[in-house]
User: What shape does this take?
Amino acid sequence: AQSVAQPEDQVNVAEGNPLTVKCTYSVSGNPYLFWYVQYPNRGLQFLLKYITGDNLVKGSYGFEAEFNKSQTSFHLKKPSALVSDSALYFCAVRDKPWTDKLIFGTGTRLQVFP
Amino acid sequence: DTGVSQDPRHKITKRGQNVTFRCDPISEHNRLYWYRQTLGQGPEFLTYFQNEAQLEKSRLLSDRFSAERPKGSFSTLEIQRTEQGDSAMYLCASSPSGIGEQYFGPGTRLTVT
Assistant: This one.
């Protein structure tokens, strides 16, 4: 079965420092990968996706993610963290090429300290 | 606001009662999805529609759960004979196609007492 793993429940980083939120995947075939962010009392917001092409994907709010096929990873990154980036981040993978079903990870809480 | 809307935002019900939630997708999005999220977990897929056709339904969805999208626009999710284990956030999302991102609504929080 397809799956994604987010090995860190929480990531702490100081404002202005680079941040990384980790995601690894397990799929058969080519993965369709997504990152979403969830702010308190708000719905999930799409950040970026990898379908095919360039391994470095740029998304909203200055975030980017690097697809690494050999390490089966899709880590979310940002060069300089903001306090307002503090939120819950979810990695997701499309279950199969012929379905829209997304499988989400358990989430990583990002805390950016001033 | 032209995003996905869900109604109600909160629902408290007693065990054994039936509840129905509504989702209005972004206009012209032909795909609509339902997920469930419990505390500390990521969203869990329930079902999805392309227009009015229900294309996939999770095996986790018991026969107490039913979803409809009768005219290919809004959708309803009904839970019959609610149980305490049904307490969760129910999320709706829509998409203009199957290949891209899904746009999520704010969710309906269900509490079963």
Summary: The mean pLDDT of chain A is 94. Residues 39 and 53 of chain A are 29 Å apart (CA to CA). The interface with chain B takes residues 32, 34, 36, 41-46, 49, 51, 90, 92, 95, 99-107 of chain A (CB under 8 Å). Chain A is about 0% helix and 50% strand.
